[in-house]
Amino acid sequence: MSYTENGTTIRPVHEEDLRRLWELSFRDKDPEWKRWDAPYYPHSTMTWEAFQEKRANLVGQDDFWVIERGGDVIGMVSWYWEHEPSRWLEMGIVIYEPQHWGGGIGTTALRMWNDHLFNTMPLVRTGYTTWSGNERMIRAGEKLGFKMEARLRKVRYWNGEYYDSIRMGMLREEWEELNREK
Q: 27 — alpha (psi -120 to 50), left (phi > 0) or beta?
């Protein structure tokens, strides 16, 4: 299963994607993408050999897919249970290289991922958490119809400054209404 829109594809991870995912996410000590993806949490490099040990958690899984553009892996989308008994799901997205930022690729991938989750899981809500320093992530959610559900003020400290934690969410009925309008 995969989805493609405007030249962007999301799909499950294949074995041949692992080297590229490692290069993008764990090879470098201070990657540019980490300045936007929760930079207040430390980033650690990982050897290729250690990364390969995680292959069973990545290849063919339903909770971690790649984002592809022009046949190249450029990012990933994921989800996890915040609280499974109540079906509280949180999702994430990373576009790793700056040349792919700001052109709508992330918004497109997030829309396809959100649609996939609502279409394949009995969810009442989807959502994600970001921080006030990542304005692109907040704007992408707003464009797609996500609502700001919580703003925890000055709880993320990075580079000598406090930032807010932002929770964005969409209810199934909001998603259904948006899809009726298409």
A: alpha
On whether the CB atoms of residues 175 and 118 are closer than 8 A, the answer is yes
Half-sphere exposure of 77 (CA within 13 A, CB side): 27
Assess contact for 56 and 87: CB atoms under 8 A.
no
Confidence tier at 95 by pLDDT (50, 70, 90): very high
Copy the structure tokens of residue 81. 């249970």
Q: What is the pLDDT of residue 182?
A: 66
Amino acid identity of residue 126, one-letter, is T
User: Number of C-alpha atoms within 13 angstroms, CB side, residue 75?
Assistant: 27
Q: What is the mean pLDDT of the chain?
A: 94
Residue burial 33-58, b: 16+ Cβ < 10 Å; e: rest: bbebbbbeeebeeeeeeebeeeeeeb
Give the 3-state secondary structure of 33-78: HHHCCCCCCCCCCCCHHHHHCCHHHHECCCCEEEEEECCEEEEEEE
